[in-house]
Amino acid sequence: MNLFGTLWFGPVSAYEISCLDSFIKRGHQVYLYTYDEIKDLPLAAKQIDASEILDRSYLSRFIYDGKPSVTAFADYFRYLMFLKTDLCWIDADVFLLHDFDIGADGNFLLLDEERRICTAILRINGRSPQLKRIIAEAEALIDKDLPWGAMQNCVAKAFRKEFAAGDKLFKRPEAFMPVHYKEYYKFLLPEYADECAQRCKGAKTVHLYNNILDRIGVYKNLLPPAGSYLNHLFTSHGHGSHFIGTYPASVMRSLIEGWRMRLSGECLGVKNVVKQIFPSLRRSIKKIIWNHI
């Protein structure tokens, strides 16, 4: 049995319940850190006061684009969790297909498709010098306006030598994220079900990209359309009862197409496109500078 932990704010949807339950059904203990108790949680996860790891006041001290960033806060939270516990971090949108080993040294480092370290599944030995460096660098970023990914980049910097040496410490993305985040829609549409099934066949986990689904506007208490890979994944593993209904495929396609249009600017006027260009350019320059510090 492995011990897993994650942090959550607000209501828990059927997607998160199903993902966390996929670990519990395989005999693993899941610790759900929250600052406010989630009542009537249909899970055998153990709720823990998140203040045991990090005081809530730090929520306002990690800043992205001038605003407090829950994502950056959660990165720092998991680093402290490694220092204080023996848990392995999992994002609440990771679904367990087959068990995997954390590693005898207490480290689990997963590469994403761009050869960066992905923090969706992460474990760093609490006594390692790398963790001390990660925490020190993360704390140096408190109260500063950060580029996207600056907190995650602390991990990559700490393990730079091991990465350069081609260390086997790093896990391959296809075993844990067999479908790229740019192809998230393939999970949701019936016409891609066979492709997803083939790509996920030998995988240990699948990452469902909660942040994209939230931005699209997917209501995560409804099952994806019948015939889709994700519908089959949830229902075949006994999680269908967590949902209150099923999306029609036409509605899901409309949500996906609407998001694609928003990203491409097709639904924006010229003036609004120009307004987006300059902030985007500023963020890109800031990210380049931070990544080379």
Q: If you had to describe this structure to a student in words, what would you say it looks like?
A:
The chain has about 290 residues and is α/β, with parallel strands linked by helices. It has 2 domains: about 5-175; about 180-280, no CATH class. The chain is about 40% helix and about 15% strand. It has helices spanning about 15-25, 70-85, 130-140, 150-160, 160-165, 195-200, 210-215, 230-235, 250-265, 270-290; strands spanning about 5, 30-35, 45-50, 65, 65-70, 90, 95, 110, 115-125, 145, 170, 205, 220-225, 245. A 7-stranded mixed beta sheet has the order 3-2-1-6-9-8-11, with helices on both faces. A 3-stranded mixed beta sheet has the order 5-4-10. A two-stranded antiparallel sheet has the order 7-12. A hairpin with a 2-residue loop joins β4 (about 65) and β5. The longest helix has 22 residues, at about 270-290. The chain is globular, with a radius of gyration of 19 Å. About 35% of the residues are buried.
